Amino acid sequence: MWDMSIAQPVDVDRDIVDFAIVGTWMDQQGLPGGEFENVTALGGGTQNIMLRFARGGRDYVLRRGPKHLRAKSNDVIRREARLLGALDGTGVRAPKVIAACPDESVLGAVFYLMEPITGFNPQNELPQLHAGDPEIRRQMGLSAVEAIARLGALDYQTLGLNDYGKPDGFLERQVPRWLGELESYSANAGYPGPEVPGLQQVGDWLDRNRPAQWTPGILHGDCHLANMMFSYDGPEVAAMVDWEMSTIGDPLLDLGWQIATRPEPGTTGAALIGKLGAVGGLPTPEEMIAHYGKFSDRDLGNVTWYTVLACFKLGIVLEGTHARAFAGKAPKQVGDFLHAITLELFERAHRLMD
Q1: Contacts of 30 (CB under 8 A, 6+ apart)
Q2: Angstrom distances, CA of residue 165 to CA of 107, 149, 220, 247
Q3: Do 27 and 169 sit in the same domain of this protein?
Q4: Residue 8 domain-assigned (yes or no)
Q5: Which of 46, 106, 160, 262 has a CA that sits 20 to 30 A from residue 285's CA?
Q6: What is the CATH number of the domain that holds 92?
Q7: Which residues span the domain enclosing 84?
Q8: Residue in 16, 54, 17 with CA at minimum distance from that of residue 35
C-alpha cells in the first residue's frame, strides 16, 4: 500500500504526479526519503511535464509525458531514459538520469528522475555576459556544434544501442517518410493542404543528390539552440535537452539542423530561439562546419544536402501545428507563426539548392 503520509504539493495535480506514489517508488530505489520540498514546474520546448523538487537533501527533476498522453508518449520517455543512461560517462553534455520507471502502471505514465541542470535556455533568457559580448555568442554556437559532433562520434553499438534505431535505409526513407507525414495532415478538418512553394522540387532534389556513403551514429534529431542549456559563466553548452526525436541515423543531419535553424535577426525563424535569436552574433555556417571537423572524421562534403534535408523535415514538422490549428487543435496565432517559419525554411532550402 502506498504511503499516503507524504503531503501532495498544492499546485500539482495528483492525476499528473502523485507524490505518495513517487515517494514510495523512490524509497524502493534506495533514494533519500523525507518530505518533498520546493516543488516547481519547469517550462520546456515540448508538452512533456517536468517538475523540480528536493527530497532528503538532494535535488531532482521528474520528467513524464503530457497529462493527456499521446499514442507514443510513454515510449518516447522510456527511450529518452534509456539513451541518457547510455550516454552517462561518455562526456556528451546531457542530463544525468538518477533512476527511471519504465512501468507505466506505477504512476499512470513512464517517468524518470534526473539531476537538475545548472544553466539557462537562450530562448527564454540571455544573461548580461552573453547579451553584451558577440564573441561569447559566437563561442556558444561553436560549443553547440562541438556537442553534436561528440555525440555523433560515439560508438552506439558499444553503448548497447544497437536496436535504438533502424540505420539501414535511413537516408532513403527521409523524403517519403516526411511527405507521408505531410499528407496525413489532411485529416485535420478545414486544412486546405500545404501551401508551400517548391515543396516537391525540394523533395526531388534531395532524392537526386542523396549521399551514397555515410556512417550510422547517434542522432539528437532536434538540436536547435532552444534545445540546449548553456553555462551562466561562459559560452559552453551545459546540456542538450529534449531527446524525443533521437535515433540511430546519420549524425550529419544534426549539423544540417543547426545550420538550418541558425537564427538570422529580422526573420520569423529567429523568434524560435527567442532572446539569442534577436541579437545574433553566432558563427557562420562555414565556421560551424570547420569546427565540427575538429571533433569528427566524417566526410563533410555534403553538408549542404543535410541542411536542405533539415529545412524540408523541420518545415513539415512545423506545418503539422498549422494544420491542427485549422481544426481547432492548436491556437491559430501559433499555427500561423509556425507556417511562416516553414515558408522561410523552404526559401532557405531553395537558396542552398541553387
Answers
A1: none
A2: 27, 19, 12, 5
A3: no
A4: no
A5: 46
A6: 3.30.200.20
A7: 19-114
A8: 54
Query: What's the rounded Cα separation, in Å, for the pair 167 and 250?
Result: 8
- Tens digits of residue pLDDT in 181-221: 999 999 999 999 999 999 999 999 999 999 999 999 999 99
Taken as a whole, the chain contains a residue count of: 354
Same domain assignment for residues 203 and 243: yes
Query: 167: domain CATH number?
Result: 3.90.1200.10
241 is a domain residue: yes
Are 330 and 349 in contact by the 8 Å Cβ rule? The answer is no
Question: In angstroms, what CA-CA distances link 53 with 11, 49, 57, 248?
Answer: 13, 13, 10, 33
Give the pTM: 0.92
Report the amino acid identity of residue 124: N
Do 76 and 219 share a structural domain? no
In angstroms, rounded to a whole number, what is the distance separating the alpha carbons of residues 123 and 130? 13
Please, are residues 345 and 315 in contact by the beta-carbon 8 Å criterion? Answer: yes
Q: Do 179 and 212 share a structural domain?
A: yes
Same structural domain, 327 and 180: yes
pLDDT tens readout for residues 315-337 = 999 999 999 999 998 899 999 99
- Whether 183 and 213 map to the same domain: the answer is yes
User: Please, what sign has the CA dihedral across residues 24, 29, 34, 36?
Assistant: negative
